[in-house]
Amino acid sequence: MSKPTWQDPHAGREAERYENPIPSRELILELLVNGKKALAADEIAAHFGLVDEDQTEALRRRLGAMIRDGQAQSDRRGVYSPMDESHLIRGRVMGHPDGFGFLIPDDKSPDLLLTSREMRRVFHGDIVLARESGYDHKGRREAQIVRVDEKRMKKLVGRYYEESGNAYVAPDNARITQEVLITNTDHNAVVGQFVCVEIQDYPTLRNLPTGCIVEVLGDFMAPGMEIDIAIRNYDIPHVWPVEVDREAARLDPEVTEEEKKDRVDLRDLPLVTIDGEDARDFDDAVYCEKRRGGFRLIVAIADVSHYVRKDTALDTEALNRGNSVYFPQQVVPMLPEVLSNGLCSLNPHVDRLCMVCDMNISLAGRVTEYKFYEGVMHSHARLTYTKVSALIERPDSDEGRQVAKEHAKVVEPVQRLHDLFKVLRATRETRGALDFDSNETRIEFGSDRKIEKIVPVTRNKAHMLIEECMLAANVCAADFVATQHLPALYRNHEGPRNEKLLKLRGFLGALGLSFTADAKPKPADFKAVIDKIQERPDKHIIETMLLRSLSQAVYGPENIGHFGLAYEAYAHFTSPIRRYPDLLLHRVIRARVQTEHSMFGAMGDKVRRLRGKKAEGTGMPDMAQMLTYGEHCSMTERRADEATREVVSWLKCEYMQDHIGDEFDGVISSVTSFGIFVELTDIYVEGLVHISRLASDFYEFDASMQKLVGSRSGTQFALGDKVRIKVAGVNLDERKMDFELIGGGKLRRGGPKAALENAPRGRNAGKGGGKDDGGDRSKSGERRKPGERPVREQPRSSGAPAKPSGKGSSPAAKKSNDGKPSPKPSAGDGKGQSGGRKKK
Fold first, then answer.
1. 361 neighbors 354 (Cβ within 8 angstroms)
2. Rounded distance, CA 301 to CA 354, Å?
3. Distance (Å) of CA 595 to CA 310, 374, 592
4. In what order do the strands lie in the sheet with 707-710?
5. N or C end of the chain: smaller count of CB under 10 Å?
6. Judgement on whether residues 679 and 740 belong to the same structural domain of the protein
7. Using an 8 Å Cβ cutoff, are 669 and 544 in contact?
8. 514, exposed or middle or buried, with CB in 10 Å at 0-12, 13-18, 19+?
């Protein structure tokens, strides 16, 4: 063995791994980077003095591994050079239940296919660098992973199994198709239980990942298990750090007299909170009085920024969480309970600190003047939507009279709120804001947390009244920071993009509905369609398609307006207890009102006393920080939405397990090449009627018309058609339901002959628009027949057990786009609210 002639800082590591070590990857890469030309393997060997055959062969293998891992590249001459990353595509890996995946580029360019082989060495969610490698048989662009830039998977949740002497965990997330081999034995997990695994070794082309069990969650059907799984699957912070508990414990349990100084005293004003019956945290209170030429509206919001100061442990954890997460019957709060349900909650009959938006509104619904200031308030009543609805919609009913009697002191301002609401609502109509009917449901539980029923959530005028008040305050907050050029987060909502607009026009045209031909439609164009379909039986489906065509609302420091609400500028100010962007906005406004010499829209000497007061602890961020905050808070919001949807899907599947064999009415909510998805009336549960369960015929998929057409019978199934189904099966693991068609479908005019003549032709006939067919990624892959197992191309180490069952993913859930503000979610002890509706 020749003596090494190189100085390698990683020599010790190499000596531990190899009996006859060669230069480390780092040293080889340094040579390639510093060299003036590409080098052949023989030249590299000569540079390091490698003469033994074993060493030169090991060097060739190492160079090959460096190419595979994206550290080096080689041309046809066989010479090596550092990897040129300028042409590489950076993006996020999105796994598919059938083993393959997609690369979602950071630059928003079209997605690329990752074969099952490429997916072997990454997890869903990883950030990678890849090169375009060609096209598959369907003409889709493929990518080859060059390097994993960020290994995002640290922990995962799954079910524990043992087989042939091997212990492994099958991930619960359908997009992760590799089992994880378990290396530790110091756990008490029982086969079939859910566990949390910490990843030790990432998967490779040849080996499955390994990990150790760090937490045993419990049995499959244990009450609350679906929430425990979702919290960990989506990496939602749910345990308070020790320092957060310490800071919370040091807070005074009540508002002190010192804290009330230099604040506008609103305690004699009959401010009230209006929330759901099960609400625990009250972050907004309202008051209205009639004035000459209009109204005075006061929206008082809990002054969270007074207690949660920048860079404290409370602030760091609030930012980490980003928002509260509202599951049915359980909340993961953004702030500890001493704040969320105590000091910051505008509970009745106690003094509380608040940030106030004080507005003058004309009879035409226009805000003519506003001001922001720090206040101290005393809620005069804790009202509910039900009570206020009775008071303003049914004042002569027994319930209305009872509410008026119990809350006599606040009846007058509540009635004025109703008067103002009618003015603001008319302004909303004129503005062209979108107003979609809700399709939300509430899951009601029994004492044993067994689901008793799923009921639709209905909105009354009290909900809408509070929405309009919150919208008015949020718009004023956005205007305040915009006109004073303050760094802040806006709630931005772009209009529809071209590709989605094209699909929407085709869909509406197929239903005989006209839509503007303008390249950039206005909110009023969408509203015109909504107004047209109010009496149609397929109204809900059309509204769903309108929603899907819109972008998601996000937080950002650059104001681009809010399409759905038809506002030039919009921000979130009214919910700082449960949304970090609101807390940030409070800090910015608070800092300005404490230091401004002449406040915008100031209307009183009391407020002017605040001039010159130091903005200590308010933490005015810069634009770069705001950009980071916006991206993070947008992510945590989506994370919460996805987690709550997953829990609701689980619970709905659990509920439907008791209804296998039962018949329901429904509406076709989606049409694909492999079947129709049907949404059951009222409870909004969705399942698949696989194409194999339709009447014996050959069905062609017409993507442009969103229908399946029987080529022999002429029967067609189109989006929005009413059908009757029987529940054939429920797969709780995959959150899926399979339906069998009992009745429905229409005979095409002209019969079978017309069906044959008009059926789609050519290479695209019968192809779906889901992601597995190269379309939008909002749909998952083709659903299998009940009992059918997927075929996977994934490596398995020697003796590794087979996964118990394949997984798929349900149709994409509807997007959140703020097109319709909605009431704040609640967490009750008796009845849970699915998904959680939020006040804007």
1. no
2. 5
3. 18, 12, 5
4. 699-702, 707-710, 715-718, 746-747
5. N
6. yes
7. yes
8. exposed
What global pTM score does this model have? 0.80
Among positive and negative, which fits the CA dihedral 51, 53, 56, 62? negative
Q: Is 623 exposed, middle or buried (0-12, 13-18, 19+ CB in 10 A)?
A: exposed
- The strand pairing partners of 101, in sequence order, are 95, 114
Residue with token string 């920048």:
310
Domain final residue pick, 647, 669, 687? 647
Judge if 348 and 391 occupy the same domain.
Answer: yes
3-state secondary structure of 803: coil
6: in domain: no
Q: Do 99 and 247 share a domain, yes or no?
A: no
Q: How many CA atoms lie within 13 A of 15 on its CB side?
A: 7
For residues 502 and 491, state if they share a domain.
no
Work out the end-to-end distance of the chain between its first and last CA atoms, rounded to an integer number of angstroms. Answer: 73
| 221: exposed, middle or buried (Cβ count in 10 Å: 0-12, 13-18, 19+) | exposed
Same domain, 268 and 198: no
Domain final position from 755, 773, 791: 773
Sorted by sequence, the CB contacts under 8 Å of residue 586 that are 6+ apart come out as 301, 303, 304, 305, 355, 573, 576
pLDDT digits (tens, 9 = 90+) for 607-641: 444 433 433 444 567 788 999 999 999 999 999 99
Q: How many domains does the chain have?
A: 6
Q: List pLDDT tens digits, range 576-602.
A: 999 999 999 999 999 999 886 444 444
Contact 438/822 with Cβ under 8 angstroms?
A: yes
Domain-located, residue 619: yes
Task: Quick: pLDDT tens for 696-735.
Answer: 789 999 887 788 999 888 899 988 889 999 999 999 888 8
Residue 352 corresponds to which tokens in the numbers above? 């509380």
| Tokens 């009496």 sit on residue | 535
> What is the 8-class DSSP label of residue 397?
S
Q: Confidence class of residue 518 from pLDDT cuts 50, 70 and 90?
A: confident
Do 198 and 257 reside in the same domain of the chain? no
The strand ranges marked E within 607-674 are: 663-672
DSSP 3-state of 531: helix
Q: For position 684, which CATH number holds?
A: 2.40.50.140
Query: What residues contact 756, with CB distance under 8 A and at least 6 apart?
Result: 711, 712
CA distance 128 to 144: 10
Does a structural domain hold residue 814?
no
Task: Judge if 491 and 637 occupy the same domain.
Answer: yes
Residues 302 and 440 reside in one and the same domain: yes
Query: What range defines the domain where residue 202 resides?
Result: 155-220
CATH number (domain holding residue 181): 2.40.50.700
The answer to whether residue 757 sits within a structural domain is yes
Which CATH number do you get for residue 63? 1.10.10.10
State phi, psi for 574 to the nearest 5 degrees. Answer: -90, 0
Q: What distance in Å separates the CA atoms of residue 26 and residue 218, rounded to the nearest whole number?
A: 45
